[in-house]
Design brief:
Strand content of chain B: under 5%
Strand order of the largest sheet of chain A: 6-7-8-3-9-10
Number of strands of chain A: 14
Shape of chain A: elongated
Largest sheet of chain A: 6 strands, mixed
Radius of gyration of chain B: 18 Å
Structural class of chain B: mainly alpha
Oligomer: heterodimer
Largest sheet of chain B: none
Strand content of chain A: 25-35%
Helix content of chain B: over 70%
Order of helices and strands of chain A: EEEHEEHEHHHEHEHEEHEHEEHEHH
Distance between the termini of chain A: 38 Å
Number of helices of chain A: 12
Number of strands of chain B: 0
């Protein structure tokens, strides 16, 4: 499969000695949705600005569909769509007029212009507000209009910098659903930066996590979650579990660790769904009367914190009750 | 980048400006107040004194070209504020990621500002007639004068874009915008002949593009004296080429 983005040993040193990217390597396959995660200041926006030919790298190279971002900027600009983090439409004209001006700037042939504009308005679900002034739009509508402007030319790859920042959950959902259906129809590669783990989880085919200018982990959302290899089974019982029973749980081959919290036991396993019945059998066999059991699967948040921050694995229920998160 | 692409992009920029104006003309009307005061009050009162040699022209007629130019240049110089705003939002980033040439973007925006400036002048023009200014009746001369207004304000819009790419923030830009216009206005032949100025200021007036613009517009609109028109035109064209080039060269820096 063709490589939409191919980045090799990319470094960017800003004036003043800030190292934004530090020998970054990255490949993104064509026609995939790729989520790029990282803490603030990790180099996400810098990478996007290099890929969209806004700035040059200090060393290393980056290719978009085989075109060098430094040498072939003009060719790249013809095949990419880009939505910056900040508002990028004119507020004092209508949504339709924004699309019209962008289509002229991008050189969409006049015969196709009207159809393209109507198509993108429709695919982003904003045809009804097209004739309203953009300043009367909600945040979600503005964002969908911006994406519509970027889709107007039928880009081979779409770059979105924090596409849903500051939007309410229903607006975020609307942005993504429209975007994904457009992507499925046209096979556009989508590359986006985000802080929202749930978006990366739900909508991306692949994810890379960046920290301090380097990729620290990449893969699909489930690969990343599995890579943590630890889920917790919490067992609350009427009887105190201790001594021999505790030892026999520890002796189970699949148990990675047991933490005795007095009030409950925390059993760390690779996969709680298949292991839970075995643990239940053992406890019942020992005549232990169980009060409650809960399991915690790692979320993408845990993955993110593990690779780009502190290590946490939380039991959701415990978190709601306000007790301390458990160290895995 | 083919020439036709660049021209197409410039027209898109002009269209953008016209569409914005269609939606909201408040700025054009409020900006007309100041030049009307210059003509109606300053021009009328100074005209009674008869202290300035105008070559036989009524004083208000004499200053009309300068006031028209000043008001169009105001529009152009503050066009940079639009650019600063577009920098603060993501519009400029997006334009620079479009398959367009920087020259076409900068010249297109400057020319678009020139269009806005001409609309401004068209508001003041009938007011000047009402105030008794006698324009030359030949419509070709008047049209030619408006073309010069357009060329000069395009050039000043380019200066404004250049300043915006260096200053980058609204506050710094505002200060410089104010500091630019009045000295240019006073160090030109807009309100009085260059010969009346102290010699140091005369040297500055010779380098001031506004001097040539005022001379050409005055010749075409009011006096009919066109002996220096070719020199004036040449000076304006050189000015435009220089500022368009400088602004284009600096423009990419604006998003860094």
């Amino acid at each position: 499969m063709a490589c939409a983005i191919d980045v090799r040993q990319l470094s960017k040193l800003y004036n003043g000695g800030i190292k934004a990217l530090d020998g970054l390597d990255l490949r993104v396959k064509a026609a995939k949705v790729f989520a790029f995660l990282g803490p603030n200041g990790s180099g996400k926006t810098t990478l996007m600005r290099i890929l969209t030919t806004q700035i040059r790298p200090t060393s290393g190279s980056a290719y978009i569909f085989g075109l060098d971002t430094v040498k072939s900027g003009q060719e790249i600009r013809k095949i990419i769509g880009y939505v910056p983090q900040e508002t990028s439409v004119w507020l004092d004209i209508s949504g339709y007029e924004n699309l019209l001006i962008y289509s002229k700037i991008y050189g969409v042939p006049s015969k196709m212009r009207e159809k393209r504009i109507q198509d993108t308005l429709q695919s982003m679900g904003i045809e009804e507000v097209a004739d309203r002034m953009v300043k009367s739009y909600s945040g979600g509508m503005v964002r969908r209009l911006e994406i519509a402007c970027a889709l107007l030319v039928g880009p081979r790859i779409l770059f979105l910098d924090e596409p849903t920042i500051g939007l309410d959950p229903s607006a975020r959902k609307a942005v993504w659903e429209n975007l994904i259906s457009f992507k499925q129809e046209y096979g556009t590669t989508v590359f986006f930066n985000t802080h929202y783990m749930d978006e990366a989880d739900l909508y991306s085919d692949e994810i890379a996590i960046i920290d301090k200018g380097r990729i620290v982990k990449s893969g699909t959302a489930s690969e990343l979650k599995q890579s943590l290899r630890s889920e917790i089974i919490q067992v609350y019982s009427h009887d105190r579990i201790g001594g021999r029973v505790l030892e026999s749980i520890r002796d189970l081959a699949f148990v990675q660790g047991v933490i005795d919290n007095n009030s409950h036991l925390e059993i760390i396993v690779g996969d709680s769904e298949t292991r839970l019945p075995l643990i239940l059998d053992l406890l019942r066999g020992e005549g232990i009367s169980l009060e409650r059991i809960c399991t915690a699967k790692p979320t993408l948040d845990d993955v993110f914190l593990n690779y780009a921050g502190a290590i946490h694995l939380k039991c959701r229920e415990e978190e709601e009750r306000g007790s301390k998160p458990v160290q895995a | 980048m083919a020439l036709s692409d660049s021209i197409r992009e410039m027209f898109a920029m002009i269209e953008l400006e016209i569409r914005r104006l269609r939606h909201d003309r408040t700025e054009i009307y409020t900006r007309a107040v100041q030049p009307i005061l210059w003509l109606g009050i300053f021009g009328t009162i100074m005209g009674r004194v008869n202290a300035i040699p105008t070559g036989g022209l009524p004083y208000i007629d004499y200053i009309t070209p300068g006031v028209l130019l000043q008001s169009t240049i105001f529009v152009s110089v503050f066009y940079g504020l639009t650019i600063v705003w577009e920098r603060e939002t993501g519009i400029l980033k997006r334009l620079l990621v479009a398959p367009t040439s920087i020259y076409a973007t900068v010249i297109g925006r400057s020319v678009a500002s020139g269009v806005r400036a001409v609309v401004q002048a068209l508001i003041i023009f009938p007011v000047a007639i009402l105030l008794g200014v006698k324009f030359i009746s030949n419509p070709f001369y008047i049209a030619a004068a408006f073309i010069i207004l357009f060329l000069v304000s395009g050039g000043f819009a380019a200066i404004s874009i250049l300043v915006a790419s260096i200053m980058k923030t609204r506050e710094r830009f505002m200060g410089l915008g104010q500091a630019l216009i009045m000295p240019l206005f006073f160090a030109s032949n807009a309100l009085y002949p260059v010969e009346l100025m102290p010699s140091a200021l005369q040297m500055f007036a010779v380098l001031n593009p506004l001097t040539y613009a005022v001379d050409a517009v005055r010749g075409l609109m009011i006096s009919g004296e066109l002996s220096k028109l070719s020199i004036d035109l040449l000076a304006i064209l050189i000015f435009d080429v220089v500022v368009f080039t400088l602004a284009s060269l600096s423009f990419r820096k604006i998003i860094e």
